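User: What would this chain look like folded?
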Amino acid sequence: MSTPVVRPGDIPGDIPGHPAYLAAERDRLLDFAEASRHPLGFGWLDERGQLDGTHPVELYLTCRMTHVISLGVLLGRVGAAALAEHGVTALAGSLRDQEHGGWFPAVTASGPTGGTKAAYGHAFVVLAASSAVAAGVPGARDLLDDALAVQEEHFFDPATGLVVEEWDAAWRVLDPYRGMNANMHTVEAYLAAADVTGDRRWAERAGGMAARLVALAGGNGWRVPEHFDADWNPVLDYNRDRPAHPFRPFGATVGHGLEWSRLLLSVDAALGDDAPDGLVDAATSLFDRAVTDGWAADGTDGFVYTTDWDGVPIVRARMHWVLAEAVNAAATLHRVTGASRYRDHYDRWWVYADRYLIDRTNGSWHHELDPSGAPAATVWPGKPDVYHAFQATLVPLLPPAPALSSALTPDVVTRLMG
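Assistant: Here's the prediction, encoded as structure tokens.
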């Protein structure tokens, strides 16, 4: 990604999207994230950055924070190493199912809440452990080996090349639902695992998932089908009566089109000549569809959360993670293709984030806005974590492969800090 033009009198750190601006934003987000430390892992933060005791300590949030803080270790953040080790310890201890293997979805001081084993949370265990390995966190390699063994035994389905969704606690009953969201995050996790282990098999599996996504989305007008039955037949009416579900909403999720766009470019770069054909073209098509359907779709700036299968907005709330994935996709497409239109999008969306999403009073980013741009909490109350926002401060500065934790070599970090 090229650096924005700095004109006489401009202060680089005040230009949204400029490397100096991104560096300052990384520090702000890490400042906010440190407050999520909980004896059992990392907890849910409220709008003011305080632990929200009404929520248990959730697996996916502990993993995301461990991932982000491990990146902070690689960036030289003072105090990050101890926090990252705390995350790894929690994943090996309080959140780990010592009887049946795998990880609980959430825990409280009284024990686990819920007994299912979901692919979504387990993908984030792989990502967190991979980043912690790259950061040299004690215990991280054992955690990663354990997490990959669980993937091999329970989640990855060699018959389809995709991951199944959810088991009961004892791994006896498999839910018939299949989901593309869990597969998307598994792609991210497998790429990171391939980089730190040197085992190309994980990147190749990510490539197979990417190819399946391209076929499914390409046959659906480049709107990503999210929900499937046990035989991977799309269930396009899934959750029509719950359109604002935070993880399984009805219709097309605009942000996932953008997130997949960036991930396809990462798969293509990671596998090189062995990558499935057409990933860059597919990334472009996914991006264009998401932007056409989602940006200012109701006449007001911002990305809507979901649309129907004709591109008509359904949930018009603006989620912070969608904007974060939009700048990541735009930056990566600009790096890969050189097309100036992606640079224009990138600049426009960072200005939007600076104006509406970044909370300079209480920290982090507002996780949800209403259609007018005011903070809201209909789908995402509080500010649970900094995963999407933090990655948006790094992805634009780095190539699409390797994964972030492996990309942050000492030489690269010196350049970023310079």
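The radius of gyration is 20 Å. If you want, I can go into more detail on any region.
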